[in-house]
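go over this chain:
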Amino acid sequence: MFKRNKRRNWLPLPGVPLTEMDKKIMYWENKGKEVPTRDLIRTPEEIEGIRRSGVVNTGVLDEVARQIHAGMNTLEIDKICTDYCEAHGAIPACLNYEGFPKSVCTSINEVVCHGIPKEEDVLEEGDIINVDFTTILDGYYSDASRMFIIGKTTPEKEQLVRVAKECLEIGAEAAKPYCFVGDIGNAIQKHADKYHYGIVRDLCGHGVGLKFHEKPDVCHFGRKGTGMLLVPGMVFTIEPMVNMGTWRVFIDSDDPFGWEVISDDELPSAQWEHTFVMTEHGVEILTY
C-alpha cells in the first residue's frame, strides 16, 4: 500500500495496472527521494528519433576530427559543423540559442566551455580544444563533445584530456537503472580527486531529446543517493568539465555575449560528453 502524496511527481496512468517500474518509482518517492515526472520518460519512437539525431551529431564531430589542424581558426570549425549538419537535413541547436551567435562551442585550453568561434582564435601546436555540438533532426536533439589535441602537447595536458575522458566513462558506468544522479557525480569526483583536478560545479549535464535542456540536472560531483532517480527511458547527457587546478570558473568579461566560461586560475580544462538513454541494463550511448 502506498502513502498518499499530494505533490506526487510520478502519477500512474488512470485505469492501468501498476507496472514494476511504477512500483519502484513510487517506493523511492515515498522515501522522500526526487523522482522523474512521466513526461521525462521517452517512448521507443522518441528514442529512435534521438538516436537518428545522434548519428548526424557523431558525423559532425567525425568531420571535425578529419579536418582539424594547427593554423586553422575556430570560425572554420564552425563552418565545417554547420555545413555537415545542414547537408544531412539537420539544424545546429546552438545557433542563436539564448543569444549564442554560432553553431558550435569551441573551447581552447583554459576556456572550460561555451567558447565562441572567432577568426582570430587560431589553433596552435600544443593546444587542447573541446568541440561541443548539438543537433536537431526532425525535432529531436542530441548533444556531444570531444577533446582534440593539436599536434604534440605537454604530458600534463595529455593526462588532463585522458582523465576527463575516463571521468565520462566512469560516470556512465555508475549510471544504473534506479540509481540516482548523485551516484554519477560521486564516481566522477572520486576519479578526478586522484589527480587533484577540479570538477566544475557551476555547470552540469542535463536531460535532452525533445528540448535542448530538460530535467534532470546531472551534476558531476556529489554524494551517492542524492539527486533525481534515474529510470529506463530517460535520456540525458554526462559531460564532466575537468580543470587542471581549481573547480572555480568565471565568465570572460571581454565576451560581449556573456557565454565563455574560463577556469578561475586560467589553467587548462578538458571535457567529453555523450547523450545516453537509460535502459533496464544501464546506459546506452546515442551519440556514437
User: Anything to note?
Assistant: The radius of gyration is 19 Å. The CA atoms of residues 142 and 188 lie 22 Å apart.
